[in-house]
Amino acid sequence: MSQLGSNQGGQLLPPCCRPPRHGSRLAKRLFDLAASACGLLALALPLLLVALWVKLDSPGPVFFRQVRVGRNGTLFRIHKFRTMQVNTEQLGQLTVGADSRVTGAGRILRKTKLDELPQLLDVLFGDMSLVGPRPEVPKYVAHYPADVREIVLSVRPGITDWASIKMIDENEILGRAADPERAYIDEILPQKLGYCVRYAETHSLLGDIRIIAATLMKIVTR
Predict the structure, then answer these.
(1) Average of pLDDT values for 135-154?
(2) Within its chain, how far is the Cα of 12 from the centroid?
(3) How far is 219 from 222, CA to CA, in rounded Å?
(4) Dihedral in degrees, nearest 10, Cα atoms 7, 8, 9, 15
């Protein structure tokens, strides 16, 4: 894996410092391994059916692979079911409102968060955790304040966290903004980072289980 190289000014990003840990990192990793392996086995048939749906719905690969920033600034490629037309990312990395790039299957997959399920592979491989700050693309990590960046990137990124739950309709909020890019950087990103810092400094295995339960409840009741 390569390391995150520079911020928006072109200077090297400092290595991340590890804040005090609460709970056992080993227990968290063992929980991640067991849960992701069981999840992939239990969901094998539904995942296969979704993959077939994505493939038949629009031309292109089943998976969307994008470079994200992981723990300690390490870059990795995240797994997601593809929800957009191919070769449209150059038009912007934010999904805003009723984005015309989103496919028919993609609209449902995004709303139900089923497009995130392949990230169980990233958890199994050790690039991600079930719970942790959502991994950002390097472009937006460059906007993290240095002290915040060190804390947030000290833990593995996750499939879900409190920010994902509280800001589940983020793209609709951006759709109402005159300048979505600016709104994301100035308004939404600072709110997300507040949740991320709190998680990195206080996370526990029991807390992770609560976040997973809250995520499932949020998806079911949307």
Answers:
(1) 96
(2) 24
(3) 5
(4) -10
